[in-house]
Amino acid sequence: xxxxxxxxxxxxxxxxxxxxxxxxEVLALAEKLVALSEPQLAKLPVPEALLxxxxxxxxxxxxxxxxxxxxFLAKQMRREDEQALERLRDAMDEKGDAARREVAAMHRVExxxxxxxxxxxxxxxxxxxxxxxxxxxxxxxxxxNTLDERKRNKPPHAFRELYRELxxxxxxxxxxxxxxxxxxxxxxxSPERD
Length: 194
Prior knowledge:
This protein is mostly helical. The chain is built from eight helices and no strands. It has helices at residues 16-35, 38-43, 51-59, 63-79, 82-119, 121-130, 136-152, 157-186. Helix 7 (136-152) packs antiparallel against helix 8 (157-186). The protein starts with 15 loop residues before the first helix and ends in an 8-residue tail after the last helix. Residues 1-20, 173-194 are annotated as: Disordered. One of its GO terms (cellular component) is cytosol. InterPro entries: DarP (IPR006839), DarP_sf (IPR023153). This is Dual-action ribosomal maturation protein DarP. Pfam families: DarP.
């Protein structure tokens, strides 16, 4: 029984439905943790007390026993303080965002590579407009070598090197933009005094 405060009419504790929702959220987090590899787990702020339970849950493969062990892991996680679980959720969300950004960058580089191979100098001019620090001569040479490799059915060495060069140019520009944003945020905008 939850009980109510006679003065305000508010409940003393959360409802059973609220407790169940929170328990199911922790169970979902436990499932995500069990799905991670050891190196991925090592990068997360997992409380030391939970690591043996996570490993044990991974080890058990029989369906019912795995489900029971997963429920036990979630119970152990609920005993941890809420801040520890929140840090864990934040770290896992950050990894998801970082992975999505990495995949998007990879697709952008691949699109530029295909454009350079299909459109030649016109695409190279657009690339240099967008990323002026890219090396025109090196890019042109790699495009020629890649096309030559394709004609001769050779291994794609230049194709891969073109990808690496484009990735360095595109991601280098993105990092430079992020640094510029940080520097402009740190300045207060007031004029300098002599």
